[in-house]
Specification:
The chain contains 8 helices and 3 strands. By secondary structure, the chain is mainly alpha-helical. It is globular and about 50 Å long. The structure holds manganese (II) ion. The site of manganese (II) ion has 7 residues, from α1.
């Protein structure tokens, strides 16, 4: 069964002025679409076609570089779109808000640590808020299209919030100013969606 590119759950211009419409259109329609197409090409006619994306990523060391890059790319972008919202930017509340305060000190401290992970990831990659096997929260980053679900990853767990720091995610609007893009990100985070993923990951 082939993987499919889901439509964005909002209009391309929904995250303006923080994420511009042209970037969203190209990022979803060209970049993410290419990961899906290339993943399907890489697994066509193999046993991998019968696995879920999570099953593939959890055993990614068994598969080719094409499956790793494009499977990761498909998963990471799917999570990214689903945890952004035009009505984002509020603070996390409830159990997730409490856990963030407990682990990182405060929401402001959390944002600082996550932003540092995103700004110091050299080259292309992702910054993550993820849930470790023991149920606790952690911040980290990974290169290229890797993520904490992968058995080859230095950081391991279930990602619940990710920030794409590939230049294709911000160059049209922010050029080389990755810190400005990271600062803008906080205005479009859908904390309700992140909270749902937090509870699912802890089960
Ligand atoms: Mn991307």
């Amino acid at each position: 069964m082939a993987f499919e590119l889901a439509p964005l759950p909002y209009a391309f211009d929904a995250l303006e002025p923080y994420f511009d419409a042209k970037t969203m259109e190209i990022h979803h329609g060209k970049h993410h679409n290419a990961y899906v197409t290339n993943l399907n090409n890489a697994i066509a006619g193999t046993e991998v076609e019968n696995l879920t994306l999570e099953q593939i990523l959890g055993n990614i060391s068994k598969y080719s570089g094409a499956v790793r890059n494009n499977g990761g790319g498909h998963y990471n972008h799917s999570l990214f779109w689903a945890t952004l919202s035009a009505h984002g930017g509020s603070n996390p509340t409830g159990e997730l808000g409490e856990a963030i305060n407990n682990v990182f000190g405060s929401f402001e401290d959390f944002k600082t640590q996550f932003s540092t992970a995103a700004s110091t990831r050299f080259g292309s990659g992702w910054a993550w808020l993820y849930v470790k096997a023991d149920g606790t929260l952690a911040i980290g980053s990974s290169p290229n299209q890797d993520n904490p679900l992968m058995d080859v990853s230095e950081i391991k767990g279930t990602p619940i919030l990710g920030l794409d720091v590939w230049e294709h995610a911000y160059y049209l609007k922010y050029q080389n100013r990755r810190p400005d893009y990271i600062a803008a990100f906080w205005n479009v985070v859908n904390w309700d969606a992140v909270s749902i993923r937090y509870h699912a990951a802890k089960k």
